[in-house]
Backbone:
């Protein structure tokens, strides 16, 4: 692995922990960003001299700026940033309370990525060395799905944001990578009541992500076959596609059985 100085958000979840363990095992210095201090401390204990733990709200640009200042004072500009923090949940426009869910999901899944990259980007450009910015989006960002409008919108916005950033950084040695997982066996999918084709274990997904970034792949789909299935479905007429999706169970909304926690939801 060519990366030696990494910052990882969402390090507490199943996928984040798998990424952290692989980075640490590869000898990298790793900034572990998440909300569960105990989990982060356990990860940092794997390489105490090479890890630092941070527990900010990733959508708070001031808190993330403090993370950047602290990390770079210790270890310098990173050569890899993985913006992995994200939340998911069902959404119903007819229910006014769900608008707060959409707001928070956009804050974490979209704004949080920009807030993660921002404190480091200037120093990374000044360093003039090859480096990578990785945003973990989702296949759900490729097309809207019934009952999942907030999540789909946040990930679609992230994909477009990463396209813009990639174009801006073409003249530099910094690459931008969009990762679109399908279904990973994590807490975010544990409450799903529908079929999850191509379900992938977090460690295997982490291996594929890091290998893809290492090779310079700009668009990484995990697993690739779920991307092919999604593209095939998108070739169908919209009315037929919608009819198929409407027949599937919906993701639980916030507060429903099987829903996942959304930090900072007010």
Residues:
């Amino acid at each position: 692995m060519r990366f030696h100085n990494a910052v990882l958000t969402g390090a507490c979840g199943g996928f984040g922990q798998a990424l952290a363990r692989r980075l640490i095992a590869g000898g990298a210095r790793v900034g572990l960003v998440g909300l569960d201090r105990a989990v982060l401390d356990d990860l940092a204990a794997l390489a105490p001299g090479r890890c630092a733990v941070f527990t900010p709200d990733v959508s708070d640009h001031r808190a993330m700026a403090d993370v950047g200042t602290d990390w770079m004072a210790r270890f310098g500009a990173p050569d890899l940033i993985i913006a992995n923090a994200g939340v998911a949940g069902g959404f119903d426009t007819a229910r006014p309370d769900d608008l707060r869910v959409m707001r928070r999901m956009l804050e974490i899944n979209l704004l949080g990525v920009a807030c993660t990259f921002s404190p480091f980007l200037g120093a990374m450009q000044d360093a003039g060395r090859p480096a990578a910015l990785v945003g973990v989006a989702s296949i759900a960002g490729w097309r809207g799905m019934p009952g999942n409008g907030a999540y789909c919108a946040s990930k679609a916005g992230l994909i477009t944001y990463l396209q813009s950033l990639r174009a801006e950084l073409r003249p530099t040695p910094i690459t931008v990578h969009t990762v679109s997982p399908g279904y990973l066996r994590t807490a975010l999918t544990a409450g799903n009541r529908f079929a999850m084709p191509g379900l992938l274990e977090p460690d295997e997904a982490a291996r594929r992500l890091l290998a893809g970034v290492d090779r310079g792949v700009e668009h990484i789909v995990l697993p690739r076959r779920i991307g092919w299935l999604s593209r095939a479905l998108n070739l169908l007429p919209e009315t037929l596609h919608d009819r198929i999706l409407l027949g599937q169970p919906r993701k639980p909304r916030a507060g429903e059985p099987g829903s996942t926690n959304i930090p900072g939801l007010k």
Observations:
- The mean pLDDT is 90.
